[in-house]
Amino acid sequence: MESHSHSTRVPEGEADGGMAQDRVRELLDRVAQLCPDDVVWELGVHFRTLSETVAEFAVRVEALESENRQLQERLDRGHEEFVQHRESMSELLNLHELSEAVSTSLDIEDILDALMEQSGRFIEYESCGVFALEAEGARLQAMALRGDGGESALETRIRRHWEDGIIDGVLREGPVVIDDMDSLIHNQRADRCLVIIPLVVRGKQVGIFTLYCHRAKDDFTLGELELLGILASQTAAAIENSRLYTELESAHKGLQDSQRQLLISVKQAAVGELAAGVAHEVNNPLQIILSRVQLMISQHRESPKLVEGLGLIEKNVKRLSKIIRALLGFASNSAAMTQWVPLDLSQAIQRAVELLDHQLTGQLIDIQLEIGEDLPQLSGNVGELEQVFLNLILNAQNAMEKGGRLHILATCDGEDTVEIRFADTGRGIEPEHIDRIFEPFFTTHPDDGGTGLGLAVS
């Protein structure tokens, strides 16, 4: 006789009902049909209660929920890291843009505009400004202000903190955030604050960068202050570079001016040597001519026409002698030969115009004189001034070969300043020649016998 054992499991949910019993009977009938008569079967039926099933299901649900929580936590951490990386990337891009802006520009306004614009991208502010230390740290001067109409209020706050000594502490200790006492008094809470960041380059304090923000003091993070500090450091270096470049450019311009003056001095020295020789060679014959003319005048007083002609010769010979003395005075740079006397500027201009009026009229040049009635009494060398006026009028004449208009304006500009303008409709002086108009004998028409404006000599 064979003995077999068989175990079957009643499905969950059927163990407590009639369906479970029917299912058992059905299984027994099938076993009886399948087994021979000499085989003995042992049938074991195992029942599970609903409570055990629910408990197992609850354990599985709890495990799934725990796994789900872990996954959610990992997802949240990943999202936070992504946000942090994105913010860090944005900060790096802002730093890169500011670095590029301040490194490619030497203009103070462009540098400060870049600083305030980049700061506003990650910290919202109502107003901001950059203040420079002047007079070796004794004074704070606003360099740039920006905001929604609160620039003057920001400057007032900063100057109050400067007087209270708070700014000195910032320059020594570093960035600080200060509650706005005005908002604390009016609103009974500190919902606005002032951020102050020092501008220091190579240990030198150059100023401060400030932001007036509509947020509480405790809302600022250390990372935000560090980022503002980096922006301020880059800006301070750019400001210092701009200052050094400006000083270098000024020194270079001064060197160019010195070289130009040195060149003019060399030319003047050459002219002086030439003038000394010419004066010696020309002045002696002129003195002989002058003495002979004066002798002839004394001998022929009974002939008025002859005396008149000789008087004209005497006048022009004296004029030539005066010009030679002026040339010698220019060459020796001696002020002792210059005679300053009270003069009427209006008469000096009119005499110069009268001397050349015939030539100008013949060349179809219209002269417009506009001389103020309130010109003060001046002192100077009237002969040299008249020579200057003559040279300028002749230059205008040469510039208007086909006629034109010459406007001479003399006005009193202030209590002790007189301005005289010569304006013509000619082609004008080329910009590259402006700096050379006072050079002796400089001319753009050497082939025509031009000797320049003569401003230096006269």
Structure write-up:
With 458 residues, the protein is of the alpha+beta class. It has 10 helices and 12 strands. The strands form 4 sheets. A 5-stranded antiparallel β-sheet has the order 4-3-7-6-5, with helices on both faces. Strands 9-11-12 form a 3-stranded mixed β-sheet, with helices on one face. A two-stranded parallel sheet has the order 1-2. Strand 1 (2-9), helix 1 (18-34) and strand 2 (39-46) form a beta-alpha-beta unit. Helix 2 packs parallel to helix 7 (222-299) and helix 7 runs antiparallel to helix 8 (304-332). The longest helix has 78 residues, at 222-299. The protein is rod-shaped. Residues 1-8, 12-16 and 333-337 have low confidence and may be disordered.
Question: How would you summarize what this structure contains?
Answer:
This protein is an alpha+beta fold. The chain has helices at 18-34, 50-103, 108-122, 151-163, 166-173, 181-187, 222-299, 304-332, 345-362, 382-399, and strands at 2-9, 39-46, 127-134, 139-147, 176-179, 193-201, 204-213, 341-343, 365-371, 378-380, 404-412, 418-424. The protein has four domains: 2-48; 104-247, Beta-Lactamase (2-Layer Sandwich), CATH 3.30.450.40; 263-332; 341-448, Heat Shock Protein 90 (2-Layer Sandwich), CATH 3.30.565.10.
Topology:
Layout: E1 2-9, H1 18-34, E2 39-46, H2 50-103, H3 108-122, E3 127-134, E4 139-147, H4 151-163, H5 166-173, E5 176-179, H6 181-187, E6 193-201, E7 204-213, H7 222-299, H8 304-332, E8 341-343, H9 345-362, E9 365-371, E10 378-380, H10 382-399, E11 404-412, E12 418-424
